[in-house]
Write a structure and sequence with these properties.
The structure is a homodimer. Chain A is of the alpha/beta class. The first copy, chain A, has nine helices and twelve strands. In chain A, helix 4 packs parallel to helix 5 and helix 7 runs parallel beside helix 8. The longest helix of chain A has 16 residues.
C-alpha cells in the first residue's frame, strides 16, 4: 500500500509559533508558567508540555503560584487580558499574528463607529476574543442563517478559519442591507489550502486517515470533508488507534492532519502503518 | 384593448428635480443661461426648454453670451466645474443628489488612500464625473470582464444606475483580491424598481411600448429587457411613431418609460392609442 502524506498537513504558522514559544519557555525551566486553556487542541502536545512543567489552567483562580500566563493562538478577550495584568501576572502572548490582526481591525471598526459584524462561530474562543475588541452590540453571523437587520454603516471582520465562500455569501447579503460596508478579509489561507489539498487527495485514495485532536475544529472539518466524498475515513489522535483491517485491499492511503497536529505524530503514524504491513 | 401604464414610468427624483430647476429659470426669462449638454436624454423636453430660451451647449467655447450654466443630473468632472467657475460663469447645479453623494464618496475614498474602483460604464458622463473625484489611477469595471489585479486596500463606488447583482458579482471577486474593501452602495433604487415592474408587466401583456429618448441608456435597457422576454416591444419617443397594426389582436398593452420621459408624453401616447381605437 502506498502512503501519501498531505504537504499542508500539520502545524500552521501560528500554531508552530505558539508551540515554539511554549517549549522555549519550558526549556528555560521557569516556575509558575501556565497556559490559559490548552495551548493547542492536541492532547499529546499538551501532555508533553505538562511533563516539561507548563500545564494548562482554565481560569486565574485555579493556582496560587502563577507568575506568567501563555496566551494561546486563538487569543483572549481584552477584559481578561486586563484582569491578568492587574493580577500582576506576566502575559506571554502566543496569539496567532493573524488573529491579532483581526482583533486590531475589530477595534478599528468600533472606533470608526461601524456596526461590527463578525463572521464566525459564536462559541469559538477566537470569536469571543474578537467580540471584546468590537463592542457590546456586535453581531455574530455564521453564513447559515440570513443576516438580521443592519445599520447604515457596517464593518465586517472574519474568524481566521472561515471559508472565503461563506464570506462572499455574507457580503452579498450585507450589501443589500447596508449603504456602506468596510470589510477586512482576515481569513488565513492555510485552512483553505489544507482543505483543498485534502479534498484532492481524498478523491484519489482508497482510505483516508485524518490525524488530530478530537476537540480540534479544523481537524473534524477535514474528517467531515472526507466523509462527504464517500472515502472510508478514520479520525485518530495517535498511532495506538490504528487498526490493520482498515487498510485491507487498499492500494493508496492518504494522511492529512489539522493545524494543531505535530509532525512527529504524523510520522509516527506512517511508520506504525508500515510496521503492521499496511 | 386594456392599457396599463407602469407606476414607476417616467421621471425619477433626480430628473424631476433637474427639470424643475431648469423650467423655473426659464420662467424667470433670464438671459445667457444654457445647459451643459442636453438637460436629460429626452429630445422633446430639450426642445421645449430651448423654445423657452434655455438651449444646450456642448462646450464652453460655443457661445459668447454665457452667464450661467445648468449642470445636468449626471454631474460633471471636477476640473470642468473649476473651469466654468474660473471663466466667471455661474453654476446652477442640477446634479442628482444621489450622484452628488457618489462623487463625495469617490473623493473620500481617494483621501483615505484607497485604490478606487468604480463600477459603471466607462463612457457614461456620470462615471466620467466620478472618476475626476477619485484619482488618475482609478479603475473602471463593468462586472462583465474579470477584475484586474488590485491593491491591498480597495474602495468601491457605484454608478447610480447599476444593478445590485452586478455589484454583488464585483464584490465577491474583489474580496479574493484585496485584504480590505470599503464599498459604498450608491445604487439608486428607482432604476431597479422600474426594471422589476416592467419585467412583471411584460410577462402579462400582449404588447409593450417603451417610451423615452432613443439616446437614453435606461430607456434602451427597458427595451432590451422586454425583448428578452419575447413580448412584441416598440421603443418610441412620441405618439407620432405609433402604428395601429402593432395592437392587432392584443388584449393587454403595457406602457413603461425611462427616467427621462415626462408624464405628458406618456399620457399623450395613451390618448393617441385610444383615439385610433386601440
Amino acid at each position: 500500500m502506498k502512503i501519501i502524506v498531505a504537504k499542508m498537513a500539520g502545524f500552521c504558522f501560528g500554531v508552530k509559533r505558539a508551540i515554539d514559544i511554549a517549549f522555549h519557555i519550558a526549556n528555560e525551566k521557569r516556575k509558575g508558567v501556565y497556559t490559559l486553556g490548552p495551548i493547542i487542541h492536541n492532547p499529546q502536545v499538551v501532555e508533553m508540555l505538562t511533563n516539561k512543567g507548563i500545564s494548562p489552567i482554565e481560569d486565574l483562580e485555579t493556582k496560587r503560584d502563577i507568575k506568567a500566563l501563555i496566551i494561546r493562538t486563538h487569543g483572549i478577550p481584552i477584559g481578561l487580558s486586563k484582569k491578568i495584568s492587574s493580577s500582576g501576572y506576566e502575559i506571554i502572548d502566543a496569539t496567532c499574528p493573524f488573529v491579532k490582526k483581526a482583533q486590531h481591525y475589530a477595534k478599528l471598526l468600533k472606533e470608526e463607529d461601524y456596526q461590527v459584524v463578525i463572521l464566525g462561530e459564536k462559541n469559538h474562543p477566537e470569536v469571543k476574543g474578537l467580540m471584546s475588541y468590537a463592542n457590546d452590540n456586535v453581531i455574530i453571523v455564521d453564513g447559515k442563517t440570513p443576516l438580521p437587520k443592519l445599520k447604515t454603516r457596517v464593518g465586517i471582520v472574519v474568524q481566521t478559519t472561515q471559508s472565503i465562500e461563506t464570506l462572499k455569501k455574507v457580503l452579498t447579503e450585507a450589501i443589500e442591507l447596508a449603504n456602506e460596508i468596510k470589510v477586512y478579509n482576515t481569513i488565513c489561507n492555510s485552512t483553505a489550502l489544507r482543505l483543498k489539498e485534502t479534498e484532492k487527495m481524498a478523491r484519489k485514495v482508497d482510505v483516508m486517515l485524518v490525524v488530530g485532536g478530537k476537540n480540534s475544529a479544523n481537524t473534524t472539518q477535514l474528517t467531515r470533508l472526507c466523509n462527504s466524498l464517500s472515502v472510508p475515513t478514520y479520525h485518530i489522535e495517535t498511532s495506538s488507534e490504528i487498526k490493520k483491517k482498515w487498510f485491507k485491499g487498499a492500494k493508496y492511503l492518504g494522511i492529512t492532519a489539522g493545524a494543531s497536529t505535530p509532525e512527529w505524530i504524523i510520522k509516527d503514524i506512517a511508520e506504525r502503518i508500515r510496521d503492521i504491513g499496511g
